[in-house]
Amino acid sequence: MLFFSAIICFAQEDLKEREKQAAFDPAYSSYSRKKPAYVTLKSGEKIEADIKDVDRKKGQINEVKFIKPNGEKLRVKAEEIVDLYMAPSGMEKLQQQSNFINDATKWGKSDASKYMNKGYTMYTNQMVSLKNKKKEAEFLMQVINPKFSQYIQVYADPWAKETMSIGVGSMKLAGGIAKSYYIKKGDEKVLWLTKKDFDEHFSSLFMDNDKFKAKYADHKFKWSLLGVYILDYTEFKAESGELANSK
Q1: Which has more confidence, 142 or 102?
Q2: Mean pLDDT within 207-213
């Protein structure tokens, strides 16, 4: 019994460490007025400018107003932008993003490590139907799994509800997790994935990889382990020689 207890204990510790590695970035709604943003337009032009204002629809960015160093004002719609790197406001929030793997091969984009190791948040242009109900439109969406986003990208849902958190008095011991995210696998359309619909989409997201299927054949999957599943899937694909090229 002691032997099996030790095995279970080690397995739980391994899972905890894996969860740390696969943790999603915080979803931010703020931006710094003290640090410039870096923008790549569909025209190929790259811009470094301060952010004056951000317009959103259902929490997702559909327009950004910039001020260039020379004082020129720009008003750019999401449909004109490829990607955007901007810093959240508050040094404590920047510090939350400092624990990334310092290896450019782990990132979905070649510029990501350069900006995000400095505390920047990555947004990319996506065509999406908000909550799978609205007419498709282009938005700038925050990538919250940039370390392992080569095959499956996870985007923040700023309006997501959270699971119940655990606390004693005013002390929060275990925080709630979002009940929904936007997910894009390969060239498929962006999917609004919710906790209650996870069972329905688990197979199509992950079970096309033999190594993943073997590991999780008898597993009762959990919403709280979504990041772990995506990290495992990414590593299994890489081991099979299917490493996606950085975009």
Answers
A1: 142
A2: 95
